[in-house]
Amino acid sequence: MRPRFHLSPNIPGGVARKGDGGQRPPRRPGSGRHPPRARACALALLSALAACSSYVPPAAVTPDGHADLSQCGRGIETAVGPLLAAADLIAPIAETAARLNDDAILDGINLVHAPGAVARIEAALAPGDILLIARHNTVFGRITPGYLTHGLFALGSEAQLRALGLWDDAALAPWHGRIAAGARIIDAAGTGPVDLRSVASVAAEGLAIFRPRDTSAATRRARLRAALAMQGLPFDYRFDAATPEAVFCTEYLDHIMPDMGLPRDPLTGREVILPDRIAQAAFEGDLPLDLVLFLYADSDGLHDGSPALLRATIAANWPGAPAAGASADPP
Description:
Layout: H1 36-51, H2 76-89, H3 94-103, H4 117-124, E1 130-134, H5 139-143, E2 150-154, H6 158-163, H7 176-180, E3 185-187, E4 195-197, E5 206-212, H8 217-229, H9 249-256, E6 265-267, E7 270-272, H10 275-283, E8 289-298, E9 301-304, H11 307-316
Helix pairs in contact: 1-3, 8-9
């Protein structure tokens, strides 16, 4: 089925999305808008790639708290290697493609548009949490193997930061206005440099919140300082975790919490950090992270998901995984 695109008028840089907690950062020099023909060609290419992809949604999966995750990350060289090689060649228009991706929602499904979804997510979030989201409602998400395709860092609200004694930290002072305006999370996305954003501005059809077990004020303070120190870093369109001068989403998380040791996988001469592998390590006890919320959306609306459903959905979206619905374990 050919994906339907709903293009937002907010593609140009410097225009804030609704509820974004402030304006988008300006474009970097040399990253201006490309001619309409180039934009149309990029959109057509992304659409074709998305139409060829396969994806198993949570609704098609039977919850299984013991689902085999051993295939997680396997086959990524074959699935993603050629795309990364192509991305290296088209780096000059990578940001344009990313902005098109961020503003083109497939089939109109976005869980933050469901009534009460933003409030539920914000209520569940705590400073220092990791958000791993499924963006199969965007083209890049659709062509990325696995279920969870993007990672973000939770900064928290003013009230939460005050309660933890972190609001008056000097590192937070420049961002008080953005946080008061609704920014709750920090995102390293291809649409621009690392920046704060609101929960309402996130395009996702699945979202999982993982909480580090070390929630001491000292650890949270150190991680918040590290997260804010990297504001403005450019996005790493090569997806190489060994190049700290530019970062992609999960590489950013790794820099914030290096003590965690997020799992890295070799891929076409670089190291990548897959969101699904982070969830896998948490489920298997290899990372001190606990799942606190899993929500997903489809044409029937917003749904609560169990840890067993998230685990089974991740397993079902990797090559060699058991067929969807093959397990009959209760949620």
